[in-house]
């Protein structure tokens, strides 16, 4: 599982939901124009799987709607 990565443009840290402190890591984000940007680090094994399949899976908690999201490898596309 990818883990949150620190990045210099972050200006806010989102803590885990109450009761999930043992299983959810704090997340540094950049709050920018109504958008929250985060950065994620993959393990070597995950990178190998991404290279093999060309796929990255995204899970967003919530059950009523899927908010707009963007997954990219280029910081300049989000900051």
Written description of the protein model:
The protein has a domain of 55 residues. The model has no long low-confidence stretch (mean pLDDT 92). A hairpin with a 2-residue loop joins strand 3 and strand 4. A 3-stranded antiparallel β-sheet has the order 2-3-4, with no helix packed on it. The chain contains 1 helix and 5 strands, in the order βββββα. The chain is 13% helix and 20% strand. 0% of the residues are buried. It is α+β, with helices and mostly antiparallel strands and 79 residues long.
Element layout with pairings:
Layout: E1 3-4, E2 12-14, E3 27-32, E4 35-37, E5 40-41, H1 44-53
Antiparallel strand pairs: 1-5, 2-3, 3-4
Q: Could you name the key traits of this structure?
A:
3-stranded antiparallel beta sheet, 79 residues
The global form is globular
Q: SSE order, as H and E? A: EEEEEH
| Distance N to C terminus | 24 Å
Alpha plus pi helix count: 1
If strands are numbered along the chain, what order do they take across the biggest sheet? 2-3-4
Q: What percent of residues adopt helix (DSSP H or I)? A: 10-25%
- The tally of strands reads 5
Low-confidence stretches: none
The overall average pLDDT, rounded, is: 92
Structural class: alpha+beta
């Amino acid at each position: 599982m990818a883990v949150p990565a620190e990045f210099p443009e972050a200006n806010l840290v989102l803590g885990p939901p109450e009761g999930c402190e043992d299983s959810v890591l704090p997340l540094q984000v950049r709050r920018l124009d109504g958008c929250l940007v985060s950065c994620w680090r993959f393990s070597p094994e995950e990178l190998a799987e991404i290279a093999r399949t060309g796929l990255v899976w995204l899970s967003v908690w919530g059950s009523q709607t899927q908010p707009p999201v963007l997954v990219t490898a280029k910081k300049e596309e989000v900051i």
